[in-house]
Amino acid sequence: MSIHAAVRRHFTTPALRRRWFVLLFTLALTSQPLFGALGYEGALVLTPLISLFALAVGVDAVRDARQADATDPHAMSLQTPGERLRLLFLRGLGDLCSLLTLSLGAFILANFWQVNCDLPGGLLWFLVLPTASGLLGLVAGLWGGVLARRRPVQLLLAGLPLLFSLVLGVWRIYVDPVVYAIDPFWGYFAGPLYDEAIPITGRLLWFRAYNFLLAGAAVALLSLTLGPGLKVQLRGVSLRRSPFTVATLFACLLPGTLLGVFAAENGFHATEASLANALPRTRVTDHFVIHYAANSAAARDIELLAAEHEFAWRRLAAQIGREPRAPVHSFVFPSPELKRAWIGAGNTEVAPPWRGHIYLNEQAFPHRVLHHELAHVFSYVVGEPLFGTSSAVSWRGLRVNLALVEGFATAFAPRSESGLDLHDQAAILDRLELRPVLGDIMGFGFWGKSSRRAYTAAGSFSRWLIDTRGVDPFLQLYGTAGDFELAYGTSLDALEVEWLAYLRARPLRARDIEALRQRFKQRPIFQRPCAHRAADLLAGANLAHHRGLEVERIDLLRDLCTIEPEQPEHRLLLAQAQVQAGMQDAASATLAELSRQVDLTDTIAALVDERLGDLALARFDLPVALTYYDRALTRGLGDNQVRQLQIKRMGAADPALAPRVLAYFDPFEPNPEHPSEAVLRLYAAEQIAALPRYAPLGGYLLGRQLLNVQQGAAAIEPLQRALHPEDEEHPLATAELRRGALLMLLEAQARARNYDAAARVLAELQDDPDADSGLRLDATLWTERLEFLRAYLP
């Protein structure tokens, strides 16, 4: 055979074309970070391609067998239908295995240029996604092949199950309260990419069992009905002649049908009714149906939680001038783990605009994320009519402007961070030279950037547009998926120049820049090839800790530090685990090694100093502890971290106070979340309050503990004692501590419905000459909240 004929054969033979395409596609995939390694993302992208090619493999197996039968009809007559089907399946399986082997080989070869942190886990993903879906596609292809004669019709019939499952999956994503998608042929979308832990769960394994049971029933039925000429023949089928096949049919069909009928109960998808099992309590308000768990923090705080929902609605309605359809269903989960199990998103709160649902984790009052997620629901009234997002279809194709989707919610519900408002955060992002170019995030490129950088830039830009040019043009911009010329009569580039000039004119302190450097240093998941393995190791370490397997926990954390040595947070966790296991010397060595890294941000360096100070405090080596705490306090930090360091420093400076401060913070307690720890912290705070001259500090700590358990009225008296000490008592020594006490007293008075007293506290906060932009933003929100609460919860 000539070279020309050989090349021509590779281009004209369907089986060879498929192999070349799969090989080249997988090799191209290996050039991309994360997707190019053998793991979840690579398997997810490959699965639809393998499924579609498996259809053609099954169809071609039938066509080849029919062609062979035409040349040797005598051989065909000697075979039973079961034998014919087995030969068909083996022929198709061989072709499918060649496709899977080529793609798997390309992924393994990619280890020379791609980082793969979990090869065994990647192999499992390859088995449960493309391999499993390919086998299902092969069965569909065999059925399509025997039902028709012409190849286009065969492929069309074989593709009907794929089309049906795709339509059903999209419909469920649209109407059901889930953010994951699981499909026999198209694979498993685990949920928001910001949840980095993506394990192979029981949900996926049971779903594959369900798939293969129905596939087994389909193969058994085909064996029973396969007639001469490889056609389906219903007449003359004798069930008595094939008892084993009939038994196989029912053994697969009955349990498979049961798994499918109870799909919601098995976690294949969810409905509002099935979520009632997890969140059986409801609270109905004017605009919401709030679903929550019995005996949860939300249940104990349901009146304030309902009020905050209605307050968020009123604020957004006043700003946007339009309202979505009520009621909105709000699902408040007591833990991220329960939320992930039921809807597919654990640490990420979500709100699909078209569904009118918001899915939240419990948080202390006032809920920081509620307003943002509700803003997504409000975006439905200005977005395109099907999904309510900032998207449009034109001759250029589909455009989805993710920067406006998230910018809308961030701009209408801005949040402070480390004492800074949204624009100051964006200005710091610009000063650190980490700000994404707006044009790069106005589409799906948004997901390719660090979430914190992209959200901050999109939110600040959107808020600046609203403040400088009004709400209506911004709503028009959202509805057109980013047509800046139509909405503003100028280009995105020109607006970006103005916005940057505004940011660069904002005064910033060096300490504020340092306080946010670590937050913005986070790389996007697509630039972290070991992100999923790191999340799995962290989850395994937490599980080992809960089981009391401290050696196993430390080993897992060491592995975590090895695969992501550039993440200093991992070494902090390792040091914490070592000290909780009683390995103080090892913890000191880990922290000392971390402190020698040259690229540490102030946030991490201060945490290292704080941990070293804690170790010294536990040894009662107070001068050394004082040195570490003092050094930590020289760094650029947010108020919360500063307050904790200041209290520990007070303990290191006074031998009488030191053991009680150590007992209060108890940094080496193996189970800090155990209910007994809250009692012990409360007892330690009372001991501090009983010390001569330390009643104000004790009151501060008592008030914080009481607010942690939602006891606002009880927290008022100790917080007032903290702010107004007796003559011989030490006053709260710093502006940060006093500000913290005022913020807690504001919440306590609001919880107790003492709105006049709360307003006086708020006025004192607003009069603070050192109040930063974040505090002013929060104070404005509290002013509106108190006005609302006077009427809603008098």
UniProtKB/TrEMBL annotation:
InterPro entries: TPR-like_helical_dom_sf. It comes from the Bacteria. This is Tetratricopeptide repeat protein. The keyword Membrane applies. The chain crosses the membrane at residues 20-38, 44-62, 88-110, 122-143, 155-174, 209-230, 242-264. Keywords: Membrane, Transmembrane, Transmembrane helix. The keyword Transmembrane helix applies.
